[in-house]
Amino acid sequence: MGQSEKSQVIQGAFWKFAERIAAQLVSLVVSIILARLLSPSEYGTISLVMVFITIANVFVNSGFGQALIQKKDADSLDFSSVFYFSLGFTGLLYCLLFFLAIPIADFYNMPILVPVLRVLSLSVPIMGINSVQQAYVARKMQFKLFFYATFIGTVISAIVGIFLAYSGFGVWALVAQTLTNNVIDTIVLQISIKWKITKEFSFERIKSLLSYGWKLLLQSLILQFYASLRSLLIGKFYTTEDLSFYTKGNQFPDLISSNIDTGINTALFPVMSKAQDSVDRVKAMARKTTDFTSYVMSPILIGFMAVAEPFISILLTDKWLPCVPYLRICCIILLFRAPQTAILQAIKAVGRSDAVLKVDVPIRIFAIIILCVSLQHSVYVFALSEIAVTIFGTILYVIVSKKIINYSGLEVCRDFIINVLMASVMGVIVFEIGKVLTLPSFIILGLQIMVGAIVYIFLSILTHASSFTEIKMMAGKYFLKYKRD
């Protein structure tokens, strides 16, 4: 990876990471407040509705947006064509969700789903506009705009959600928070970006972009449908409380992982796309990303597993402790995201969107078989089965990466496993501290975090971890620059 490319990725990742951290810190505070004000069943209701909204948003956020980023010479006509197409298509999606609300509510025997789904579905056409804006920002590497738009939208929506929850609006507080966030985010981006909508449209450009994007769209749809299917089945065969604990258990680890993972990979894909003619350069970027992402994510996820119980008890109260096993399972699953996403971005960047689809189909077939078997047992076993699916998927991704970018399984293990092993040693020490000490929970939690950080840094120095050295160098450069300024 060249110095200019590394600089682009680092700067882009920094602003994307800052955007996600700022947004998620506010969201975390709001989530804690709302979890104390609302019941698990109310959270279960909104979780069920969000399944259908998320599936609809796959059509919006996948395919065309990434095709616009990957296309070397995308111009105003491309962006305007996708904008008008997305607007019309998402309008049809909203109508579909509006009329499906009644049969969905009847299926789950929950009348409240009708108005909630119809109102929350308004976010779909809003996200249709937002997806084109995000593609423009990512292509231009103007990730600072994401930070401002997301932060403003998150803060305003947080105020709205908390106010309505305190006023006794229940599930509608969550609906209002989600819609407000989407609207403000879209308005701020539209004001900020230089690209403006023009009165031009080309079916030829849509067809051209669709030839690349439809495979990614279908892959994302399969992936999201499978993820949603798990929630739908829990909501149907178990209880809304079970769904709420399952969703809340996934929320915190995913929040941590998505901040780092999304920040790095959102910045990485445009840079990889520019280097798509050189497989060696793309492979080098994929290796560096796997190493760096796993180095940062592994201690956070494994450390979170170790402190899960006091963390949930302190922040959400003991009524949410049943979500702890799901939280720990989710952390294990997300450990494998570092190599998977680095390989995925590399495959997409070199134009092999067909390979992405070919890999994901057998993964989902295997996943559905595992899902059907585990459903007969308990929600815990149901959640646990996803670990087997994740390991199987990682193996397939590694096989494909060897064929397309010559990134072998041995190299992936070298870039990934050492960081996980270091984090695991740290996690065992942190967990044992929690078992031995009898101090108040918040003091134990603070000590666990402090000791965990010290141990991981010590292990990084002992093993000469390359990512640790690079972080030190980056920190030193920024410190000197700050001192000069």
TrEMBL record:
Listed transmembrane segments:
21-39, 45-69, 81-104, 110-133, 145-166, 292-314, 382-400, 412-431, 443-465
List each coiled-coil range: none
Give its localization.
Answer: Cell membrane
Signal peptide position in this chain? none
The record's annotation in CDD domains points to: MATE_tuaB_like
Tell me if DNA damage is a UniProt keyword of this record: no
Its membrane topology is listed as: Multi-pass membrane protein
Q: Which family does it belong to?
A: Belongs to the polysaccharide synthase family.
Please identify the protein, giving its name as recorded. Lipopolysaccharide biosynthesis protein
